[in-house]
Description:
This protein has helices at residues 12-19, 26-34, 43-54, 57-61, 65-70, 76-99, 106-117, 154-163, 184-198, 218-221; strands at 124-130, 136-144, 168-174, 203-210, 215-217. The chain is α+β, with helices and mostly antiparallel strands. It has a five-stranded mixed β-sheet with strand order 2-1-3-4-5, sandwiched between helices. Strand 3 (168-174), helix 9 (184-198) and strand 4 form a beta-alpha-beta unit. Helix 2 packs across helix 3 (43-54), helix 6 (76-99) runs antiparallel to helix 7 (106-117) and helix 8 packs across helix 9. The longest helix has 24 residues, at 76-99.
Amino acid sequence: xxxxxxxxxxxxxxxxxxxxxxxxxxxxxxxxxxxxxxxxxxxxxxxxxxxxxxxxxxxxxxxxxxxxxxxxxxxxxxxxxxxxxxxxxxxxxxxxxxxxxxxxxxxxxxxxxxxxxxxxxxxxxxxxxxxxxxxxxxxxxxxxxxxxxxxxxxxxxxxxxxxxxxxxxxxxxxxxxxxxxxxxxxxxxxxxxxxxxxxxxxxxxxxxxxxxxxxxxxxxxxxx
Length: 224
């Protein structure tokens, strides 16, 4: 059945306008993005088949270009649109952090770091540089590693913070395994960085470990 033949309150666009985006299923949200289906398949049914093919909405959003474009109903134009949407979301989170006190915006901070690091295939160690009011100066990916680990050098982090005139920092790295639980090595390098920063009166406010479905905060765990 074509979408225009559905009851108006069940069509994705009308449903979003009436009830808000949070009321839509993954397939309905994807259908709005796709706009149209393909011959014999409406946009919602096409979306369901794509979600099944890629395993989840996240699987679709993080798919490599070749795999994405090979699916019926997609292609380069849709891939470009999707990448633009994802980048706008990242910049939205970053703009919120730039306007607010990062330390008092834990949810925005967590959401931003997840958007930046969760889908990285290898480990990335990054740093949020903050001013004296804990507002964002910059987000800096610092070290790139293998599937298992990144070599982290506290002196490089300290120099970067000094160059940016940062008064405080928030550390973050992802676990490509998907498990966000901090390792003993994570705790040890965090302590070394905290000690190195303290020599120059730069505070380490938190260290987030980004996994598949959660982001663990050292501060919330009492590990700092």
